[in-house]
Amino acid sequence: MADTIATPLDGAPTRPAKRRVRSRRGPLAYVLRAVVIVYLFFLVVWPVSVVVQRAFAPTDGKPGGIGPLWERLTDPAAIYAFNLTLTVSFWAVVINTVFGVGISLLLVRHRFPGRRALSVLIDLPMSVSPVVIGLALVLTYSTSLGIFGDVLQATGLRIINSTPGLIMATAFVSLPLVIREVIPVLEEVGDDAEIAAKSLGANAWQAFWRITLPTIKWAVVYGVVLSAARAIGEYGAVRIVSRGAEFNGETATLLIQNEYGAFNEAAAYAAAFVLVVMAVLALVVITVIRPQESHRS
Asked: Among 39, 92, 146, 235, who pairs with 142 as Cys (CB 3.0-4.6 Å)?
């Protein structure tokens, strides 16, 4: 009897072969793992754990623990700093989400002269020092030094050394994060569904709201979380555009720097601990979102 060979049914869809990653357990693999773990421990884990430990440690003869930590965090100056940080981060993320989705659609769905230059320009905030970004904003929008100084002074609008300047600086440094998450998804899904919807009578807004946005929503959420984490921890640009004084433009990162410089290390460690907790929460959210995004794509 002839041997039978199992073949897929004619016309039946075949599943793509899954890429198998072989587990290599040779000596070199163990050495690389050890090097990576040691590197991350001394560069990330140990310094961050020291900050957390100092936040709860006794200082200046006063007991440590949750009670003193809470007392430092409920200080009016600390509350002002965190309120300002959350306000600035919120508006920066909103601005970057709206314009990030719009810029992503422009770059993926349209072809025009200068498109590649625009795509490169978007990454500029990631390659330029935040201090330089802050200085550029001062030279442009300051009422005394800025190019638009006379116009701003005539209208009574003050950007530098005020909350609008902080929002601009924070939005600048976190601009690419939403865009670089949305563009790959738009390129992968293509525009066939949008064209079909428009051929059936949908206008541009209906095609975006019912077709495009549900497709990119997890990429948008992922970019928003990254932007929020970046905005909350921003220091360099806001240091330049803000007075950075107590109850006067002092964000959480500036509070840490000011308190540490004034030898009030307990308050600095407490504020740093809160920023560490926010960063960890952002990582948890990203970890939860990533499998859902992969599942839906």
From this structure: 146
- Residue 21 confidence class, pLDDT cut points 50, 70, 90: low
pTM for the structure as a whole: 0.83
